[in-house]
Amino acid sequence: MPNTGFDDSFFEERFHPSKPVFDEQTLRRLSESQDRATKPPVLKHLEFESGLDRETVCYLRKLVKAQLEFASLRGFLLKDANHPVKFTDSATYEQQMGSPLPANIPLPASRLDYLPVSKVYSVTIVLPQNLKPAEVRINLTRTLFSKLFGEIHFQENILPQEFFQNRPWHYKDRITNTSDILELLNTLDYPSERFRDHCKTEIPEKEQPNNKDPGDVIHIKVRDWMQKWEEQRLGSTETNLLQSIYSEFLENLKKDPVSIYQKVISQIHNLDALLHLSLPNDEPGYRHFEKEHPLQFLRSYANRLEEALSLIGFLEEVELQFKQMEDRELLRGLRIAINTRMRELRRDGKARPYLYPELEQTDTMKRLAAKFPLKMMKWLPPGTPMDSWSKAFQKMEKQYAQSIYARLYLALNVMDLQILEKLEFLEKPYLGWSRTDRS
Q: Where are the domains of the chain?
């Protein structure tokens, strides 16, 4: 979960001269380059209070149209065009509501209501008397856009995604592969009642592990079963028992999912001590998820794992192409792809090159490293004693420097340097020796 704050470094990067400027001409070219086979987005129910003059209504129609087109160019589309949007003045709104607007609410103001019968959202914009000041028009634009493509878009397109569904994962297909069941049980140390019953009925009393934790016992037994499975010595009785334990696991997952989630989260903490996929700037959000929404914690970490695996796959593909590629344009394209990934890692705060001793530190990187403790102060748990800050900062810096993202960033950097070296060699004038003679 990246930090959404806007500090000086954000604006320095955003408005750097090397960044593209999206002026009106650029936006027009972008619009023309889009596939315009579909109709331009519209809202079917625009309502204007009868007291609004014609010039104001014309301006508001253009504003709505411009916002819909602007959002469409960037992939923001409302799923339903039937959301009513009503523009009214404060006097009419107060009369309809039966109470005056609070004195501390500046105009333009907005209100969002859900209409359960038609399953749409109703937006009401309360206008000031004078719309001509630039500040008023800016606030009106921001207010309308935040309702349409902030709140409504979030409700329609973001919350329905699986990550935000606070319900257990659906097991549509049972695991039938014995090795997968063994891996699941081995990972969770699942304390099965059916395994205990098995011990009581199948194992002689003197051999029963009465003094051991049930989770430890099944963990030891699962290892034995895994070895038998690899050696193809696992019998049908043991296979049936494993299927029975797995069925019990699914039943308990349905009855009490939180206890299962907590076991998985415990395993994740052990894994993250090695990978550091959860970075210090993520800690406040992850702590909240773990305490309040454990399923979202698991989904978020699963997304991180998938991202890391995707980067590893990208590196493997780039390395393969690099070895086989001699075309300079294609090699330059590989460099662009690599640098794009590196820039994304830096932008999201997952890679911080100024903390990597493997890289030569420029003056800019040294300044960023010197200012980094100011960022880390925001990530300290509430109530952290000041005398322990230095040790906490050292721990955070170590997490960044040893994270899987740092390893991947450094690998991308090495690959970029290798491609650059190859390009320089290919661009050298032919001097009479073969490429295989290069030491």
A: 38-160, 178-255, 274-437
